[in-house]
Automatic annotation (TrEMBL):
Similarity remark: Belongs to the pterin-4-alpha-carbinolamine dehydratase family.
Domain of life: Bacteria
Name of protein: Putative pterin-4-alpha-carbinolamine dehydratase
Pfam families assigned: Pterin_4a
EC number: 4.2.1.96
Keyword Lipid metabolism: no
InterPro entries: PCD_sf (IPR036428), Pterin_deHydtase (IPR001533)
Length: 111
């Protein structure tokens, strides 16, 4: 199992993940929101994320609101962020880009 990342490591790795931010309410979580062109594409993104998460045995929290898909990632068993979270975030962003789903800047997140 991965070790917890330090704040410095998290900040450095988030520079390579422009879609993702640390959650303002819970700094042990990174979040991203994506806006799909239509509902079916948003659901396809969720389906792709589910496949990736299952392969990694690491599952995000997912919230679907019409064409917006919000994901939150943390290693709950460690009580914070690990390299596994960073890798999952990269893979989610890759799937979103492949499907033409754009990241949406969240007002409630801090980076």
């Amino acid at each position: 199992m991965s070790r917890l990342l330090t704040d410095e490591e998290i900040d450095r790795q988030l520079r390579d993940l422009p879609d993702w931010r640390r959650d303002a309410a819970d700094r042990a979580v990174i979040t991203a929101s994506f806006t799909a062109p239509d509902f079916p594409t948003g659901i396809r993104l969720v389906d792709e994320v589910a496949d990736v998460a299952q392969q990694m045995d690491h599952h995000p929290d997912i919230d679907i609101r019409w064409t917006t898909v919000r994901l939150a990632v943390s290693t709950h068993s460690k009580g914070g962020l690990t390299q596994l979270d960073v890798e999952l975030a990269h893979r989610v962003s890759q799937e979103a880009a492949r499907l033409g789903v754009e990241a949406t800047r969240e007002e409630t997140s801090a980076g």
